[in-house]
Amino acid sequence: MGRNSVRGEGSHGRVERAGELGWDESLYGNDASGGAEGGGGSAVPGQSAAPGGSSTPGGSADSGEPGSGGAGSGGAGFGDAVSGDQGSGGRRRGGSRRRGKKPRHRILKWSAVALAFLILGTAGAGYLYYQHLNANIRKGDRSAGGSDAKKAAPNAQGQTPLNILLIGSDSRNSDENVALGGAKQDRGGDPHADVQMLLHVSADRKNASVVSIPRDTRVDVPECKDTTKNKVNPPTNAIINEALGRGGAGCVLDTWEKLTGIYIDHWMMVDFAGVVAISDAVGGADVCVKQNIDDHPTKLQPGGSHLHLTAGNHTVKGEQALQWLRTRHAFGSDIGRSEAQHMYMNSVIRNLKDQNAFTDTGRLMDIAETATKSLQVSSELGTVKKLFDLGMELKDIPMDRINMLTMPRLPDPKDPESHVIPDKAKADALWALLRDDKPLDGKDDGKPAAPPAKGPAAAAPGSLAVSVVNGTGTDGRTAVKGRATEVVNALKAKGFTKAATGTSDPASTSEVDYPQGAGAQGKSDAESVATALGLPASAVKASDVKGLTLVVGGDWRTGTSYPKQDPKAADPLKGTEAVNGADKGACMEVYAPYRF
Length: 596
Known about the structure:
Largest sheet: 8 strands, mixed
Helix content: 25-40%
Shape: globular
Radius of gyration: 32 Å
Structural class: alpha/beta
Number of strands: 23
């Protein structure tokens, strides 16, 4: 059988669904009908044709006589013709040299033609397959219209952090999802985002963080446009997993941005069937339970994942992987489920790294085929190349620099038994770390920190026009009336006589923004404003504002000096279920009623 020219690809016949993709097998010399009606002829120079057919249409490659090496004649391939050996349909040995020169030119010509067809065919087939993978991908708008977070400014090397929202949908709108998830009575209803994780990759790509928000968290959901129903849903205070039904994944992204102030570049969403398919494609994950587990329905808690495992270590894949990721009651709560999901994700990443899957073309193609069918992504991420580039961004991050945790939270006053709300002090500190691209583990890259570059001196306070924005209307609370005016007066008292109030714009945290094009001078001017009011250096940010802007956020509702923060009270990692990527010994505790 003929071989194509792509290194490591082997026979073209190994590619699945080639016919469906419109690939022309005859270009590869392994057309079922034969290269010249004889079948099986090799199109690769220097390789003998398979019995029963010549590589040269219509006859022998060197005789030029019709029929002398044609169908059924057993004519020689390119290697035989060049050497002058006689095939069953070739010319006799000892032919005149004069006649021998011309056939060799013809041989080279036909070799060049065959090689050109081979290269073009391979390129065309590759393009068609690439287009096939792209066509698999389902895409949607990044935002549902309720987002106004600002993208982080590039670092000194021109790099920016990467933030991707990972969403698990409980949709039952297919036979397969109903079979896997039960609750067939919910078919046709609005889906919920039962899994929500933010993947933050640092600008220098040396560390990554994953933060989950429990599905039963009460938050402010912004106004979202639902394009599938052609309606606009007004803002509301609701449980976060309802955001998916109010405007799709874009509404979930907007809700996260409103809560965290973090600009999120993309979202990726998967349903039950997609989890099963992807789990099989990546080879599953290694998990552990401390006791025997059987997550079954009870009188008090209907439903359940039906996960059934003995105590110890297991590799779960396919439907069993889905059961692991859905288990809630047996792990104590939705918080326990998030911890189990982090354990699963860390294991998948470790396994792919150990198997060198990121550099194994065959594995990557298998995973790509499955992933493009199983995932729905925001439109900016909607090509195979961009998904591949994303994988390459992650492959070199050391496992001990990958940290996963669940958002700090408190019982919801409206329903303390079932719902939670963000623990504001700790959650805001966590969001600030991610906004400022700080690693959750507090580690640097092992190199001594370079001293900050000394910028230009700030302009005189009286020459700086500062717009003060009242952003205190966040977290379900009404904005403090007259707050911007109060801070303007404080600035004027410190010499910033051009300070004035601006349009109200809710923000969870206070910051001093300067135009991105203002450079070092703009930063120095912003730092002088921050220093005057006691804001930390981390509050100074380059943004798309037109001029120097002080945002008085929800964390500063009273007083004319920014309140000092208690570092211990605001430690985002204290009391959370943090899981490090290098921890292979993590093991889940099983709630007693679900042990066997």
